[in-house]
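Ticket #4471: structure export looks truncated?
Reporter: QA, pipeline team
Priority: medium

Steps to reproduce: submit the single chain below to the structure queue and open the exported record.
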Amino acid sequence: MNHGPDDQGPQGLDSDELDLRTMLHQAVQEVEPRDGTLEYLRKAVPQRRTRKRQAVVGMAAAALFIGTAIPALVHVSNVTGSDANPSVAGHASQTQGGASEGKGPDGGESTAGGSSGKSEGKEKDDKKEKEKGQGGSGTGTGASQGTGPSSTTTVGIPACTAAQLGPASGSSNAPDSTGAVSGSFRVTNVSGAACTVTGPGSVSALAQGAADISKVGSARHTAGDAAAGLLPDPSLEAAELVLQPGLGYDVRFAWVPSETCQPAGGSVGGPDPTPDPTPSEDPATTAGTSTGGDTGTAPQLAREDGTVDGSVAVTYTPGTGSGASSVVVSNACAGTVYWTGMLTGA
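Actual output as written to the record:
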């Protein structure tokens, strides 16, 4: 084969290349494009160029995002330590700032490192304590556990009416060695709907027979009074109660005598005087002027027609105006009736 300049054609090709070119032209001279090929190329070429531009723009945006996110993550990791959670770059501002920046919900200073975990744990503890306080039967509210009435007013529950509460029922116990008598009154919700009782009502004492009306009275029970051993502590009383249908509350009382009834046959106007009274004689005992708060008892003065049995009628009137109830304490001539507020119980 001659590769010299003399063997090349007018286009700078040698004879072999010219022959190959001619053969190729002859092989494809009958090949023609299908119908619509030109129109397809006119549409496909611009679409391909558009996709290439979009790919280039997407790669540039991804590179920009990575370039800005990585420094932010590195900065958050350096500031907050291992306790921070930089999973989202947009939350970096919430975990920055270092310790003792801002005030927490309880007024204390909050810290950046591990603040989310500590706050969540504290909220759970507060929730448990709150639920425990609501469910317990603290001594200051008189609330009972189980199915008893609630001492906390529920929003939307109306006040009890006289028609919803049945008449009060009273009972009393046998007197003890000092003549004191305890008892109680119970009021029950006889309606089919819950209601709220907002007050205990009132208790009165009425002297009967030989009982001295001037020496018979009633008083609210307080801590340390003469009925402290007969009545529950005042801290167990409830200011208001929500009574479900069929449930009720108690108001307890205690009769504490200050003088005993004088047996028949005694002297008119008092005991037989002694001819020579001694200075050590107790004037309060001989005159019969002791009050209802005294723990001891003194003989009551006799009447002209002889002393008959005395008694005291203890009457409870609910605050709603429903039916009142009375309990008669026999062999009672002078003393005080102490009574409690509302108590939850069987």
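Status: closed, not a bug. The export was complete when the record was re-opened. Leaving a note from the reviewer for reference: The chain is about 25% helix and 20% strand.
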